[in-house]
Amino acid sequence: MRARRIAACALALAALRAGAEPGPAAVRGDFLRLIGRPRVALAPRTAPPAADGDLVRLDFSYAAEAGQRVPGILLEPAGAAPPRAAVIVLHGTGGSKEGMLPFLRRAAHAGFVAVAIDGRYHGERAGGARGSAAYVAAILRTYRTGREHPFFYDSVWDVMRLIDWLETRPEVDPRRIGLTGFSKGGIEAYLAAAVDPRVAAVVPCIAVESFRYSEEHDQWHSRISTVQAAFDAAAKDEGVGRPDGAFVHRFYERVAPGIDGEFDGPSMAPLIAPRPLLAVNGESDPRASGAGLAEAVEAIRAAYAHDGAPGHFELFLEPHTGHKVTEEGYARDLAWLVRWLRP
């Protein structure tokens, strides 16, 4: 059955590039319609530049939509001649832009303009709550009300608006904007790259997976554990005492419609082709490994082969590694961005 799904995905990709519908173009359009909202003025605000060791730091914010200002950090080499390649770094569940500073500094020392933002209901956007508490509460509100999409999708919109702002910055070359992220941020990275062609290269870490496969094979527990309190409350609302894959699907359909179907990894990640894509995954990651990962990887490889760019995709599968990125993984991430974006 999995082989048939891979073949169907490859045929859909071929149909798109032959000009037929429906296909990946329709998927991209459907996703953009789902997350779309009025484009308010960016109204950027920046603090005076400050020293961060031998780097220059700029704290900034911009309006992603009405009522949503996004705070961020930009680091760049002191005295660097503009414009330069930029890399956006997205944090995981419970993280913040400050948590990305070690990787931002590495990227800036490699020559990049390095940027991180707080995801929805994280960091400065958490209203004083710690970790992922505000994020999980927002996901439960979405389940109950149908408003917002804080589970991945709203942050994709924020990234697209961040690129709008970066395109106005004199220090940034808009043709060389890269994107990387970790766990939740990695999923947001491949979703954003799939629908925004301005992303020139992307590295999703511990993120590429098949949500649908996990549902169908009772491997959903680890991913759901990141928002467990929201999931448990939703199950209680529905009188479900022992949630199964079918209830997981119902949960996703309310909080992130299509994440286990039209907008799943095996459907969205191939849309990045032929732009350079490196997937960094742990061999024993309970959230993103095994047959579900293999299904996504086969679909991605089919897309890159069809576009005549098989060397633009690589999978780095970290041996004996769970849901984490090792030092080797971080090094591969940065090396890939350096290779393709030439900071």
Mind explaining what this structure looks like?
The chain has 343 residues and is α/β, with parallel strands linked by helices. It has helices at residues 2-17, 24-35, 101-109, 133-145, 153-166, 184-195, 211-216, 221-224, 228-237, 245-255, 265-268, 290-306, 327-341, and strands at 45-46, 50-52, 55-65, 68-77, 84-90, 113-117, 172-182, 199-205, 277-282, 313-318. The N and C termini lie far apart (44 Å). Residues 1-22 have low confidence and may be disordered.
Any chance you could write out the topology, listing elements then pairs?
Elements: H1 2-17, H2 24-35, E1 45-46, E2 50-52, E3 55-65, E4 68-77, E5 84-90, H3 101-109, E6 113-117, H4 133-145, H5 153-166, E7 172-182, H6 184-195, E8 199-205, H7 211-216, H8 221-224, H9 228-237, H10 245-255, H11 265-268, E9 277-282, H12 290-306, E10 313-318, H13 327-341
